[in-house]
């Protein structure tokens, strides 16, 4: 699988635009097996040998671990944030490489934050990877209930309780093992525990791998709105073992694809076109297709985050479909819909509104609907959502500024969007009425 | 009172060492009325006219406010933290100067966080200062119960609830009006609400004015330890209206003096000597003595914070007596003792341990006890504190690193200290046994 996964990466690497912040890419053998994405000609992706993984930076006095003879790290995408920069490792079987994880552990104590679904699958493996040939490190874990509806203050307190009862100190490391909910909660806990400790992201869902684990947004929900309490807090590294997708339910896989589609729509038309051609392979979990989609998504996200870490403008474009989507999640009860499902319906609504404003052709709106339908994602909100419900929830969205709701809308050719509060609000009303029964 | 308050500032300004980070000081009339602090000769404090207060930086379209003909700002101490730098305004009657506050408000919405004790005294005045000639700004407030025992997650959630129910957005400003508990909670709420909004500190207790409002440490307590959950988050400004001390109970005034004494002990021997001479005036609330003590404390804190914002080393020295003190606060139930009372007893314990280690002369230990006794502060922990209680609580102190408890201890001549885990633990045991019945 590792070799297969690398084949399309190689194809993409030699023919696609370079991500500004992608500084290292290791390509194994280049065996073309999938249609390579059609991209407009531009600067080729820089391909260089990966940095040797010999430099262990751990505080313990554990004996040095020799790297495996042949590292299976397929790709490293760097998130370029000055002294808060970090690597995203992407590849199959990365959890079998203890050194990769251990070099980013600070201190002797680790707290793995995971949930009841992921713990039976990967907690033992991660604990092994953290402690293999590294006897000075001890690992604690806290297993939270699974689901968006538990992304709240009460559940967050369980992380603090465990950390304090375990007498963890400032030189400890929190590890988020799970999907977006775990990553967001563990990250916020790491940001706030003793006013900030190190943390590592090990995302195990496609949603977390392509989006939520990258960029440092952390937080929890409030009964009145999603992600209203949190912090910008960057991890030490993101470790994406694509093998973990083997255990992901279909519905969750599709949820992640909603964010993959997003990158194409807001800034990467060739990636969108590649998805249109390869959606069947993605849904069939073809390893190299998934690996390419993850890599290209992380590159897109890393580029945006490097330019606008704290979302003063550009970064907000990553929220295409999210204002409508968050309203659906909040309005229908956290957890009823997966985040990506709500984002998919929200993306269709954003495309619909963009079209009503005359900002995109009907053909683009149609392609949005088609690709999301093909990914088996919802293209309209649930029946329970009313116009009033949308409006009252969107009024507390984080993108409201001085009372004005700013939205990410498509504008211009495929792959172009705007973040603006300067739109005809009738178009918003019309879209809401078109998608709601009342 | 303003003139009186400025007189000693002038005296100090012309004869004392300059704080590195004190870039602006406005002195009214220089009328020497108090013994000026004896300082070793060094670079005089730079005295220059205050910056004109004409530049209102508010987002609203409110008509410009003319500054008062004669501003009563006595002193501005700058906290130099690059793009997070901010001024500390110190003076009598500053809440009567709307412009001073308004220039630091971002957006049109303000949330004042205060408590049941302070609200009846100053909420109306602060609301007036925020809105006077500034009709575009609207002010909400949340009034929390008063006391350290409410510095918890449940109370913090009330701030989020109010902010969300009021539909505050990212361009709002939180204002902390009260003592250290309010400042810590409001600051952490501002750090976490929508992942960070602007905030302003208006400290109304001596403790908050000389210490907790400056430097960006925010947070809440956990049942197992003090300030274990929080963030480093800097305010837009700190506004210290020394008139607010007129309503402060004696016991709270003394509590603040414990931190003033701390600055002298850890880094400013001339200030300690000045306190020894002027303690009676401080307790009698002589305005110029208080104003000088506040200014010199803020200068000391600003210098330390500018060098080590996130407490990688030097900043920890500001916690002299605090490890013992936090244990007393946690062990005897938050709120039983005021923070400064616990710090006072903790400072005596730190001095005792330093003396047992042979690091300071007995005379220094005696001067520590004498000055704290003179300030009517406790010089020993409450009877309920046992050796075991101290040890188990101190084990989760934030200054523990990889299992080693680091302490701030006095070492060398007056005004010198170390932050270290390299001490004979027998001395710690002996100190604990000497101060505990069991």
Question: Can you summarize this structure?
Answer:
Chains A, B: It holds the Pfam family DHQS_C. The structure is a homodimer of 438-residue chains. With 438 residues, chain A is an alpha/beta fold.
Specify the oligomeric state.
homodimer
**Strand percent estimate of chain A:** 15-25%
- Mean pLDDT across all residues of chain A, rounded? 85
Q: Element order, helices and strands of chain A?
A: HEEHEHEHEHEHEEEHHHHHHHEEEEH
Word description of this protein:
Chain A folds into two domains: 19-24 and 39-252, Rossmann fold; 313-435, Dehydroquinate synthase-like - alpha domain (Dehydroquinate synthase-like, alpha domain), CATH 1.20.1090. The longest helix of chain A has 21 residues, at 287-307. Residues 1-71 of chain A have low confidence and may be disordered. Chain A has helices at residues 2-15, 98-102, 119-131, 153-165, 180-192, 206-212, 250-267, 269-283, 287-307, 322-331, 339-356, 362-374, 387-394, 425-435; strands at residues 75-79, 86-91, 109-115, 138-144, 172-178, 198-203, 217-222, 225-232, 238-241, 400-401, 404-405, 407-410, 417-420. Chain A has 14 helices and 13 strands. Chain A is globular and about 65 Å long. Chain A has 438 residues and is an alpha/beta fold. In chain A, the strands form five sheets. A four-stranded parallel sheet of chain A has the order 4-3-5-6, with helices on both faces. The first copy, chain A, has a three-stranded mixed sheet with strand order 1-2-9. In chain A, strands 7-8 form a two-stranded antiparallel sheet. In chain A, 41% of the residues lie in helices and 16% in strands. Chains A and B meet through helix 4, helix 5, strand 7, strand 8 and strand 10 of A and helix 4, helix 5, strand 7, strand 8 and strand 10 of B. Chains A, B: This is 3-dehydroquinate synthase, chloroplastic. Chains A, B: It catalyses: 7-phospho-2-dehydro-3-deoxy-D-arabino-heptonate = 3-dehydroquinate + phosphate. Chains A, B: GO terms for molecular function: 3-dehydroquinate synthase activity; metal ion binding.
């Amino acid at each position: 699988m590792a070799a297969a996964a690398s084949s399309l990466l190689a194809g993409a690497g030699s023919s696609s635009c370079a991500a500004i912040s992608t500084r290292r890419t290791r390509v194994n053998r280049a065996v073309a097996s999938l249609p390579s994405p059609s991209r407009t000609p531009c600067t080729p992706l820089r391909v260089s040998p990966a940095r040797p993984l010999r430099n262990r930076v751990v505080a313990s006095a554990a004996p040095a671990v020799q790297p495996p003879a042949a590292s299976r790290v397929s790709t490293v995408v760097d998130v370029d944030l000055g002294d808060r920069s970090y690597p995203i490792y992407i590849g199959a079987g990365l959890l079998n490489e203890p050194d990769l994880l251990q070099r980013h552990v600070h201190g002797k104590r680790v707290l793995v934050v995971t949930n009841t679904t992921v713990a039976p699958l990967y907690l033992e493996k991660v604990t092994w990877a953290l402690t293999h040939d590294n006897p000075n490190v001890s690992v604690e874990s806290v297993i939270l209930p699974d689901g968006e509806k538990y992304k709240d203050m009460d559940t967050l307190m369980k992380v603090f309780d465990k950390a304090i009862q375990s007498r963890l100190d400032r030189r400890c490391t929190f590890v988020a093992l799970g999907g977006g909910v775990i990553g967001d909660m563990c990250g916020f806990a790491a940001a706030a525990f003793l006013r900030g400790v190190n943390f590592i992201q090990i995302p195990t869902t496609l949603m977390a791998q392509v989006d939520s684990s990258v960029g440092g947004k952390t937080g929890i929900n409030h009964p009145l709105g999603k992600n209203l309490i949190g912090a910008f807090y960057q991890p030490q590294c993101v470790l994406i073992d694509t093998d973990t997708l083997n255990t992901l339910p279909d519905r969750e896989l599709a949820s992640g694809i909603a964010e993959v589609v997003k990158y194409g729509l807001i800034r990467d038309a060739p990636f969108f076109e590649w998805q249109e051609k390869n959606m069947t392979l993605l849904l069939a979990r073809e390893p190299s297709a998934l690996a390419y989609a993850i890599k290209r998504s992380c590159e897109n996200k890393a580029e945006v985050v490097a330019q606008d870490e704290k979302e003063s403008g550009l970064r907000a474009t990553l929220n295409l479909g999210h204002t409508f989507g968050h309203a659906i999640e909040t309005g229908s009860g956290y957890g009823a819909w997966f985040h990506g499902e709500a984002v998919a319906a929200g993306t269709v609504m954003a495309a619909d509104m963009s079209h009503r404003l005359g900002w995109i052709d009907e053909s683009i709106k149609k392609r949005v609907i088609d690709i999301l339908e093909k990914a088996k994602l919802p293209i309209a909100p649930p029946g329970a959502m009313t116009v009033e419900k949308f409006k009252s929830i969107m009024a507390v969205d984080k993108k409201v500024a001085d009372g004005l709701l700013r939205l990410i809308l498509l504008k211009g050719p495929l792959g172009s969007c705007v973040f603006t509060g300067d739109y005809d609000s009738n178009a918003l009303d019309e879209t809401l009425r078109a998608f709601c029964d009342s």
